[in-house]
Design brief:
Layout (H helix, E strand, L loop, with lengths): L7 E5 L2 E2 L4 H13 L4 E6 L1 E2 L7 E4 L7 H17 L5 E5 L8 E4 L3 H12 L5 H19 L4 E4 L2 H9 L7 E3 L12 H14 L7 E5 L6 H8 L6 E5 L5 H9 L6 E4 L6 H6 L2 E4 L8 H8 L4 E3 L15 E3 L6 H13 L1 H15 L4 H24 L2
Parallel strand pairs: 1-3, 1-6, 2-4, 3-5, 6-7, 7-8, 8-9, 10-11, 10-13, 11-12, 13-14, 14-15
Helix pairs in contact: 1-13, 7-11, 10-12
Length: about 375
């Protein structure tokens, strides 16, 4: 990565770690920029920060998502303003007046997706979150002085139509860490993880990773239509309600729930396919990670990462998360044919070799230099 000049870069994110989506994105970029550039991270929590990155702890009230967002943004803005940075790179609504803002989600579209699955049955917390966060998000993203990075073309369109953004927006999909996610994990971890979870080596295993609200219920219901297969769900979501659904559907003995892990590659290695019948996902990093490990994926066109895939080549698309019969048919197709899984898995791994974090870092650095050049040009005309 060749740099025209050394930059002083500030990343602003609620948490720094290599597990969660926004946090993982910052870690991948910050660790690649550090050394060649002066990198600072403003966050409330840190886990595994390298010594060559400067931490700044931002105070925040963490008793709810709403409290986190609105208690974090003011001190983060004050703290970043005290120092001179060439680029302040915000992750969503984390700081006022950033230079670059990466949009990881459209919360307006996320709530639309939730309503697709739940109808009018959204909790009061979700309705309150939308009523307060969406207007603030809209004001932040309408600011044309900041360059926006959208993690999918679909999200860029959402920023324009839902939030009225007319400023510069660049699409840079997430990358994959090929050191952690590669087809070799299947040979490395399959036997051990199958033994740990009590899932027979010959049992077709479907993996679900992430927020269970993104489609775990239809995945459980579809499992009824796939005899002999097993579903493994890994999430921070409380699994109690989903265990009840599995029992109701008669598949409790074929459904396993595990907490999140910082070694998710072990479970990609143990599985035969990833299933994510999401009603909305701005990207869906678990899709590309699974593909890099040589797994076919089953998802909907409502996942941003789906724009990278070809139906029937890298996996199978289901038109809607509510189409349980279609989801079951897709799962049954992969369950019954090891040859199909192998063919799609090989194609998926080959595709993901073109989408590395190194490439994402290079494109992001170009965004920084372009933004700085445009800012300097505006300054010269005033």
């Amino acid at each position: 990565m060749q740099a025209a000049e050394r930059l002083r870069i500030a990343f602003v994110v609620h948490d720094y770690n290599r597990v969660l989506g926004h946090s993982r994105y910052v870690a991948e970029l910050a660790e690649r920029f550090a050394g060649a550039h002066d990198v600072h991270v403003f966050a409330n929590r840190f886990e595994g920060l390298p010594a060559n990155i400067v931490p700044h702890r931002v105070p925040a009230a963490r008793f709810s998502a709403l409290a986190t967002i609105f208690s974090f943004v003011v001190p983060a803005s004050l703290m970043t303003a005290r120092e001179q940075f060439d680029v302040v790179h915000a992750q969503g609504l984390t700081v006022f007046n950033p230079d670059v803002i990466t949009a990881h989600i459209s919360n307006a579209r996320w709530l639309e997706g939730r309503r697709l699955l739940e109808g009018a049955n959204l909790s009061w917390r979700e309705r309150l979150f939308g009523a307060l966060v969406i207007p603030a998000e809209r004001r932040s993203l309408r600011d044309g002085r900041a360059t926006a990075i959208a993690i999918s073309s679909a999200l860029r369109q959402d920023l324009a139509t839902t939030y009225g953004r007319s400023g510069k927006t660049v699409v840079i999909p997430h990358g994959v860490d090929e050191r952690q996610f590669h087809p070799g994990v299947r040979l490395q971890f399959r036997e051990a993880v199958r033994h740990e979870t009590g899932i027979d080596e010959r049992t077709p295993l479907f993996l679900y990773v992430g927020d269970f609200r993104k489609g775990m219920e239809p995945a459980i219901r579809a499992l009824q239509l796939v005899p002999g297969a097993h579903l493994l769900g890994i999430s921070r979501t409380n699994p109690a309600g989903y265990r009840a659904i599995a029992a109701e559907c008669g598949v409790a003995d074929r459904t396993t729930f595990l907490p999140p892990t910082n070694q998710i590659e072990r479970y990609y290695g143990a599985s035969d396919a990833l299933v994510l019948p999401t009603p909305y996902d701005a990207f869906g990093m678990v899709l590309t990670e699974a593909m890099a490990c040589g797994l076919p994926v089953i998802t909907t066109p409502l996942a941003g990462a789906a724009e990278l895939l070809t139906d029937g080549i890298h996996g199978l698309f289901v038109p809607s998360p509510n189409d349980v019969e279609g989801l079951g048919a897709a799962m049954r197709t992969l369950s019954e044919s090891a040859a199909t899984r192998e063919r799609m898995g090989q194609a998926s791994a080959a595709l993901m070799r073109e989408h590395t974090w190194e490439r994402v870092a290079g494109r992001t650095l170009s965004v920084y230099y372009d933004h700085i050049a445009r800012r300097r040009a505006r300054a010269r005309t005033h």
